[in-house]
């Protein structure tokens, strides 16, 4: 579950304008409808049908092999709320997604504001901050499990600057593990938020900002009263986007902790993998995935509404 | 000019470079440790002691990375080509036919942007098992393509709705059929959108781990990330060898990034230029 393909605020907002246009032209009647079929077939086979089946299996007792199965109502869902593993996963998923959403966007926005000034090396710095985004998340996870190991670079660094007391077994201690995974995630994806905000800032009309400067507004005042209101649509969309991505987190957790220690980093994805794929409990795993799907779909609705509200 | 380069700007620039240095440390540690000779136990952060390519040789041979690299490339190329072909055909239809059913169909595709992968992946695994595709690279190609289709349809359809119809109208008047119009007029027209889709879908497919792990783990057809996770399991404490394997897997995407960074960053930011 590496980062899903994401549609940036700029595209969302333009889509709204475009889809409001009436149909036009006379070629419209000349495109054969079967052009859509190959895409529909692949997409249906890979996403639509399996997802519908997943939703159904969540209410069943099917073991994945037998000829028939019984519908058992909400039995699997009831189990989720009495199962310490699933509850830990739900809690961790939401905690992780919230923490990373806030920090990734705060840091990304700060970097974007800093790069959108007259500094000389803006381009090079953007390239550096964005580079981890394209890296394989699994690889990122392994790099950080080395850096955060008991004798790894982070602890070595702490000793060398005289902060021996702060040394921790970052990934082995349930108290720190989820935070440690978040650090790796933030290192990788802060550049993503930065680039989106930077595009938003670059699109702002410079006259408005210059007028504010002439009127004597300082940088903070300019940001609060002018810049932020103008980009807040993009901010909301990006917040939801990063929240959804954070909820799907699997690769880095798999590389760094595999859900441990003591379930401290177990997420919905790792549990779906363990229970459904390794443990063979298909109905339970799909019920858990359905809970996640409902949450993600609700968030996406908010995202779409916000995109539609602009201009 | 209101925005002048002042002393404060200089302080900001220096601060940013310190932040950038901190950002680069993990990548430096990755390459540095991979290049150190296995006997050299000076850690990943300092440049000292003996350097060699031994780790790379071990990772390449013991990790069987060669075949995995080939598999990854096959999956990447095949999935991206399938996505580009089927999504551009579908988008052309969805953008030009504006009847209600066509709009409805567009929303059916958009549903795919909202449904999390986790929901369908186990039933899909069972379907693939039933038709005998588990363990085959074809399964991963299909899934990689299928998961990118909603995004691709969205981007290309939006792009086409904004583009002019004059060329298509003229070609139709000249007696050109739909397939020829599509191939000779619409495809060149939507090249910027296809480029964005190819880059973003390509990165996502190259980096994907969960799906290939389910379908290929333990077979001879593993892609690079799956093979690496297997290699890490057997060489847990041997970080230099593991890091060499990670460098081999990260190198292609980083090289591509530095070569195409303008387009890649533009694609992520949604700055599609028509």
Summarize this, please?
The complex is a heterodimer of chains A (311) and B (274). Chain A has 311 residues and is mostly helical. Chain A is 69% helix and 0% strand.
Describe what this molecule looks like in 3D.
The complex is a heterodimer of chains A (311) and B (274). Chain A is 69% helix and 0% strand. Chain A has 311 residues and is mainly α. The radius of gyration of chain A is 23 Å and the shape is globular. The mean pLDDT of chain A is 85. In chain B, 77% of the residues lie in helices and 0% in strands. Chain B is mainly alpha-helical and 274 residues long. Chain B folds into two domains: 7-52, no CATH class; 65-269, MetI-like (MetI-like fold, Orthogonal Bundle).
List its traits:
heterodimer, A: 311 residues, mainly alpha, MetI-like fold, 13 helices, globular, B: 274 residues, 2 domains
Summarize the topology.
The complex is a heterodimer of chains A (about 300) and B (about 270).
Chain A: H1 9-19, H2 37-57, H3 75-80, H4 84-115, H5 122-134, H6 137-147, H7 153-160, H8 174-202, H9 206-214, H10 219-247, H11 251-256, H12 268-278, H13 282-309
Helix pairs in contact in A: 2-13, 4-8, 4-10, 4-12, 5-8, 6-8, 8-10, 9-10, 10-13, 12-13
Chain B: H1 7-35, H2 54-62, H3 65-96, H4 100-114, H5 117-130, H6 137-162, H7 166-173, H8 178-189, H9 191-207, H10 210-216, H11 224-234, H12 239-269
Helix pairs in contact in B: 1-12, 2-12, 3-6, 3-9, 3-11, 4-6, 6-9, 6-10, 7-8, 9-12, 11-12
Helix content of chain B: over 70%
CATH first level of chain A: which class?
Mainly Alpha
**What oligomerization state is this entry in?**
heterodimer
Going by CATH, what is the homologous superfamily of the largest domain in chain B?
MetI-like
Mean pLDDT of chain B: 88
Largest sheet of chain B: none
Distance between the termini of chain B: 31 Å
CATH architecture of chain A: Orthogonal Bundle
Query: What share of the residues of chain A lie within helices?
Result: 55-70%
Q: Kindly, what is the distance between the CA atoms of the first and last residues of chain A, rounded to a whole number of angstroms?
A: 34 Å
How many beta-strand segments of chain A?
0
Our Rg estimate of chain A from Cα atoms comes to 23 Å
By CATH, the superfamily of chain A comes out as MetI-like
Task: Output the helix-strand order of chain B.
Answer: HHHHHHHHHHHH
Name the CATH architecture of the largest domain in chain B: Orthogonal Bundle
- What share of the residues of chain B does DSSP label as strand, in percent? under 5%
Class from helix and strand fractions of chain A: mainly alpha
Radius of gyration of chain B: 24 Å
The CATH topology of chain A, please? Answer: MetI-like fold
Report the structural category of chain B: mainly alpha
Query: What is the H/E order of chain A?
Result: HHHHHHHHHHHHH
